[in-house]
Amino acid sequence: MAKKKMGLEDLGGFVFSTSDDFNEKEYLPEDDQEDLSPGEQQLEAHFSNKGRGGKTVTIIKGFQGPDEELTALGKMLKKKCGVGGSTKDGEIIIQGDDREKIMQILKKEGYNIKRVGG
Prior knowledge:
Keywords: Initiation factor, Protein biosynthesis, Translation regulation. Pfam families: SUI1 (PF01253). This protein has helices spanning 67-81, 99-108; strands at residues 42-48, 57-61, 85-88, 91-95, 112-116. The chain is of the alpha+beta class. The chain has a single domain (34-116), classed as SUI1-like domain (Translation Initiation Factor Eif1, 2-Layer Sandwich), CATH 3.30.780.10. The protein has a five-stranded mixed β-sheet with strand order 3-4-2-1-5, with helices on one face. The radius of gyration is 21 Å and the shape is elongated. It starts with 41 loop residues before the first strand and ends with a strand.
């Protein structure tokens, strides 16, 4: 059985304030993701067909940065490969097994990428 919480310090850092000069940003956690330049990022190109009705996809993992940049990178890859795809949970999903083509495109953009799996 879990330990019963007894005091305010056990509530996990909740701050209750009715003061007009309260600064909320002071208590918010900082973003853990750093903005890394393309040359500092280590991306992985995976091949998968699990959970997709047997259809093959290429998954790019390891991107670190804001979701807007991830979406823009995914859009650029989809456009250059002429296929569909999406960005979810910090991953870029591209339809089809285009790992070699995607790896060449990302290397031209300055990213470090390696092929993972079959």
